[in-house]
Amino acid sequence: MSKIAFVSGATSGIGEAVALKLAENNYDLIITGRRGDRLILLEERIRNEFKVEVITLNFDVRVLAEVQKAVLGLPESWKDIDLLVNNAGLAVGLSSIQEGVIDDWERMIDTNIKGLLYLSREISPLMVKRKQGHIINIGSIAGKEVYPNGNVYCGTKHAVDAITKGMRIDLVHDNVKVTGIHPGMVDTEFSLVRFKGDRQKADSVYNDLVPLYADDIAEAVLFCATRPASVNINDLVIMPTIQASATIVHRGLKTNSVL
Ligand code: NDP
Ligand code: 8X3
Which atom of ligand 2 is nearest to the CA of 194? Predict the structure, then answer.
């Protein structure tokens, strides 16, 4: 029987790559996000390329009632979720604390912390009931270090790191694994979202370097999800080779690009 994975934020970037990777490896999938048109396209692609079942759930992780309705409304057999990948998240803006935009802060806190909590609150009891399951939280190097003007985004990802550790303690007696994966720079729509659609600014983040690609993180998710029952990967920090820390990046010609 196929395992069931629930992937939040599957409409682009890391979440989309994770969904495709898991489908390729025979997981049935629940894919979620706000952009319904993209969910439908991904659903079609997965159905065409892989012989697995797919359900799409179109909701905003910031809205508790929507999260509850989405999970509660799943067909009973789909509630046996084996793997939850808490991936939906974003950075909005890059400014000092004294010039910060309150609405940007709220979007990050509501999505990265509260959204992850809402989904975990709804899905972890289903795992506890079955005494099996695995939650993988996508944190960030920004949850391990802090960088200039990253204040609130870094705060939300530090919270994800702490919540991940707390979840592991709470769920250990019920045989539910909890893993944190913390990437450095990944070339996705992340910077386009952070810079509010400014393509030039977003592209400049990945200029002259070889970043991580979403598929690199998807590989790591698959690795963590497929360890033996007796093994859990607690924490993974994954960086592009050219990035030594949140702020130290070697920029040079893109000689290794796989694109
Ligand atoms: P993308 O912008 O490509 O993808 C973000 C995903 O999150 C989209 O599918 C988006 O879907 C979803 N999402 C955002 N807000 C909401 C919301 N309110 N409700 C539901 N879904 C939402 O970025 P990445 O793939 O890079 O980001 C994925 C995760 O990886 C994030 O948690 C990010 O913080 C983390 N990360 C990214 C890094 C990077 O360098 N790219 C590095 C380290 C961590 P939609 O808009 O359709 O709702
Ligand atoms: C995304 C990576 O370095 O922009 O989490 O914070 S970074």
Answer: 4
Query: pTM of the entire structure?
Result: 0.97
For position 1, what pLDDT does the model report? Answer: 77
Adjacent-strand bridge partners of 212:
186
Give 77's DSSP letter. G
The pLDDT mean for the chain works out to 97
In 172-228, alpha helices (H): 190-194, 199-205, 214-225
Q: Which atom of ligand 2 is nearest to the CA of 153?
A: 6
DSSP for 97-151?
A: GGG--HHHHHHHIIIIIIIHHHHHHHHHHHHHHHT-EEEEEE--GGGT---TT-H
- Render pLDDT for 72-102 as a digit per residue (tens, 0 to 9): 999 999 999 999 999 999 999 999 999 999 9
Task: Kindly list the domain boundaries of the chain, sorted by start residue.
Answer: 4-238
Would the CA dihedral through 154, 159, 164, 169 be positive or negative?
A: positive
What's the CATH class of domain 4-238? alpha beta
Which of the ligands is closest to the CA of residue 37?
1
